[in-house]
Design brief:
Length: about 425
């Protein structure tokens, strides 16, 4: 059973205004590239296949896309040189395969949702006529630079005119073409062959395909996007920051809907790909990167940095100016102040005192440390990895537990370098 839809993502552009060597669509938004977000939205349609048109930084873009959707059959086609959006689709045509309709979208429009793409597909299918085309439009206050949707007096679609080709009067129109379409596969090859580049930019315009459908008496269905914000493209680093904020709010809203308390969304940074259990509270000024798992009933922050591989088991607490990377904090354990937990596995109900450092890096390699259940690490301790702090063991304030220490269960070690504190006789 196939959905009958193939998605083409145009991502060949250089993105000169980003002022960066990174291919435009690989700029990051909350732990995922722009292209990653677009791929994710496209995948939501359960398409027959996804075709990505690449150009600038092709190899890098392809590798990143494959990492993003490992199990999915992605096709890549190289567009070199880039002669316009219509040319991009011409280049993609041989990779479209057997499918009923083709959705085209951009690699630099990361906010466009699966739902909006689905409405576009539904509109195209609903036309029930061969060769029908649906297109996404939006009403925008300042449409400068966009293609404009020109409608007839009865409101029906007439044509799209590019800003550079538009008359003064046409430039007054603020319904814009977003560049997202759903074409009928059956008429696409024939239409693509007829594209030319007789226009102000000397480019092959994908928009001419829409004109051809209308000229051929086939239905063209403009669909006005309810939330024009979804159409925000990214052309420079200012827009990247704006869009990042939108993506961030969506992520935070999803967590809040799942029962995570986020005291101050404005100062909370949570990447894509973070799991947080119900009833956990995230306090302000906290950064949680991709690849972190936080259980139920935990407390995180304020001012906490959780990096990839950080795991908080249920009811664990991690507090201000504490950084965790590739480390587990067991159920009911606490690391509340000024600590670094790197490559550390901490059991249940342990207390990590203020200012504790698990020194995991010897300048060449990273090493692991294990801390047993119920251990008590005194303030300002340094545990040099690799190392083992056994269950119910204690370190005194300022202890430096060197690699040669061999602490046993329940023992207390103090000093620098730390030595076993003999039980009082
Ligand atoms: C296009 C539309 C315009 C619409 C606007 C919305 C055409 C002719 N015009 O404008 O009506 O309002 O998008 O943003 O299509 N790309 C390629 N290969 C190319 C050219 C572009 O892959 O040869 C990709 C770019 O990487 C980018 C996207 O297509 O992601 C749009 O290209 P861009 O040049 O920004 O669009 P315009 O032609 O200005
Ligand atoms: Ca553009």
């Amino acid at each position: 059973m196939t959905s009958g839809t193939t998605v083409v993502i145009l991502a060949a552009g250089k993105g000169t205004r980003m002022k960066s060597e990174t291919p435009k669509c690989l700029h990051e938004l909350c732990g995922r590239s722009m292209l990653g977000w677009v791929l994710g939205a496209a995948e939501g349609l359960s398409p027959d296949r996804i075709v990505v048109v690449v150009g600038h930084g092709a190899a890098e873009v392809e590798a990143a896309a494959r990492r993003e959707l490992p199990g999915v059959d992605l096709q890549f086609v190289l567009q070199e040189p880039q002669l316009g959006t219509g040319h991009a689709l011409q280049v993609a045509a041989p990779a479209l395969g057997d499918t009923e309709r083709v959705v085209v979208t951009y690699g630099d429009m990361p906010l466009l949702s699966t739902e909006s793409m689905q409405s576009l597909v539904d509109a195209q299918m609903g036309a029930g006529a061969p060769g029908a085309v649906s297109i996404l439009t939006a009403i925008i206050d300042d449409p400068t630079g966009y293609g404009r949707i020109i409608r007839r007096e009865d409101g029906s679609f007439e044509r799209i005119v590019e800003h550079k080709d538009a008359s003064e009067e046409e430039r007054m129109v603020n319904e814009t073409n977003l560049g997202v379409y759903c074409f009928d596969r059956g008429t696409l090859d024939g239409d693509l062959e007829r594209l030319d580049n007789n226009n102000a930019q000397g480019e092959y315009y994908i928009t001419d395909l829409v004109g051809m459908a209308d000229a051929g008496g086939r239905p063209v269905l403009p669909l006005v996007l309810e939330d024009a914000g979804e159409a925000q493209g990214v052309n420079d680093l200012g827009q990247l920051a704006e869009v990042r904020w939108q993506v961030q709010m969506r992520i935070l809203e999803q967590h809040m809907a799942a029962g995570v308390r986020i005291m101050d969304p404005a100062t909370t940074f949570i990447d894509h790909g973070v799991e947080i259990g119900c009833g956990t509270e995230i306090l302000p000024c906290t950064v949680i990167r991709s690849g972190v798992k936080v259980g139920e009933g935990c407390e995180v922050g304020p001012f906490t940095h959780l990096r990839a591989g950080a795991v908080l088991e249920d009811t664990a607490e991690v507090g201000n100016f504490t950084e965790m990377k590739n480390s587990t904090l067991g159920s009911g354990s606490k690391a509340k102040h000024l600590s670094y937990l790197g490559d550390t596995r901490i059991g249940a109900k342990a207390n990590i005192g203020a200012g504790t450092i698990f020194a995991n890096y010897d300048g060449k390699e990273k090493h692991p440390t294990t801390v047993g259940d119920g251990a008590f690490i005194g303030s300002g301790s340094i545990v040099v990895a690799p190392n083992v702090v056994p269950p119910a063991a204690t370190t005194g304030a300022g202890a430096v537990i060197t690699r040669s220490a061999e602490m046993q269960e329940g023992e207390t070690w103090v000093g620098m370098p730390a030595r076993k504190l003999s039980p009082k006789s």
